[in-house]
Amino acid sequence: METIIPEYEIIGNPKLPTGSEPEANKSMPNNNLLEPSTRSTNNRYSAPAPANKAQSFQPTIQPAYQPPPNYKIQGPIMKNEAPARIIPIAALNPYQGRWAIKARVTAKGDLRRYNNARGDGKVFSFDLLDSDGGEIRVTCFNAVVDRFYNVIEVGKVYLISKGSLKPAQKNFNHLKNEWEIFLESNSTVELCPDEDGSIPRQQFSFRPITEIESAENNSLLDVIGIVISVNPSVPILRKNGMETQRRILNLKDASGKSVELTLWGDFCNKEGQKLQEMVDSGLFPVLAVKAGKVNDFNGKSVGTISSTQLFIDPDCPEAQGLRAWFESGGRNTASISISKELMPGGSKNEIRKTLTQIKDEGLGRSDKPDWVTAKATVVFIKTDNFCYTACPLMVGDRQCNKKVTQSGNKRWLCDRCNQEFEECDYRYLLQVQIEDHTGLTWVTAFQEAGEEILGCSAKEMYLLKYELQDDTRFGEIIRSRLFHQYLFRLKIKEELYGDEQRVKITVVKVDKVNYSAESRYLLDMVTKNFPNRKQF
What we know:
Blueprint: H1 23-26, H2 36-41, H3 51-54, E1 100-108, E2 112-116, E3 119-129, E4 135-141, H4 143-148, E5 157-167, E6 179-191, H5 209-212, E7 220-230, E8 234-238, E9 243-252, E10 257-264, H6 266-269, H7 271-280, E11 286-295, E12 301-303, E13 309-312, H8 317-327, E14 336-337, H9 355-360, E15 370-381, E16 387-390, E17 393-395, E18 398-399, E19 405-406, E20 412-414, E21 419-421, E22 425-428, E23 430-435, E24 440-445, H10 447-454, H11 458-467, H12 471-480, E25 485-497, E26 500-512, H13 515-529
Parallel strand pairs: 4-6, 8-17, 10-12, 10-14, 24-26
Antiparallel strand pairs: 1-3, 1-5, 2-3, 3-4, 5-6, 7-9, 7-11, 8-9, 9-10, 11-12, 11-13, 15-23, 15-25, 16-22, 17-18, 19-20, 20-21, 23-24, 25-26
């Protein structure tokens, strides 16, 4: 037990009980708790009163006013300076007074500068993990950044106290904690010199790739998989005119699904380059992604953000199990990509229609577009205006892609971004006639679908037709792509052209017919529509 206040002034008007010790003995509270030095100076209070004066003593007389004890005017000297008790991160809440946490830094964000109505500022954040598995984000602003930015190192263990807790901003914070710590001028951050083996170096909450299909757009999650392919890094211009890098790779796991992972910025040249070298040499590493961002454009994919962390061949049970599965036969197991619109055998929500059914059932005429799959053959491709010159700048996490025009100085101008640049992109805008056993229709195929149909990029075709003017080679490519059968994922929506309403059919995805999957689909249709068929 710790004595906090050795003595204190009398509160109220206490009365002595009849037959008690001499009243003077009790006029001083806590007399028995006084230190010996104090007791010796107050002996006069314990001396018995003379007998002839005992009758005149009034036990209810209020003691004379005593000045406050010395500790009151000595400020922090008598303040309880015992160190704050270390508590688990999970026990933190805004209503606690003194607290301290001991945790390992698992991630450290970049120093960012901002400007708002209150002026310029700077901010950085780091994530903590303690021995109980609790995680929390810590944020520092302005002067506090100067104190702690160079102190914090990933992997080190720190003792942190005297910060304020505020609700976590879930749009930017993937940790499973409803609070964030904001360090202030009186906050303390002390490095623990001795390594604490009870605190793990990292903590994951892996989701199987098959569950990413149902994950919400823009949500953050952890995923682990075998890297089966890595594309080269390509430069991308952002809207602010700054250039960044983008690299796409593919992961697969034992769930039978694969997913695209898009690396941005420094991830392309660090981890991305190492992964490409490993895959090119015949190695297929395990990659763990912490805090990847889900994107639902054209299927589901995962992308990196500033707080994302990548771990190549991590030392964890999940990675070891995945490696064992891959080496024991998973290498040769086929997987279905969730990053593309799935076709027969893959999508549970697929609606298969013939081309005549699209017209006869009035698809696309409601408020929302209709999405269907059709198996059809390409019979004609228009070669006039088959592509357009597009803006390469990034708007947020997507490319602008608006049409650009060439100015007098031979530079390309985007009216939307209001910027000029030396090189533009070339994107398909194909008008294609497709036909099945019931009829034919016109569809519009944009970039990815156009590349799948023609087998080459829009830039190659543009150069052949307009710069090299090689009409012979251009025509050969067009003719070679006719009468090929595909599975088309179609978006059907009625749109206004001038004063006329027209149904527009857009090709979202094109896949070559997988005859094994198509046969299974037809057998399922037979079973569904003819349940009482004779068995052979």
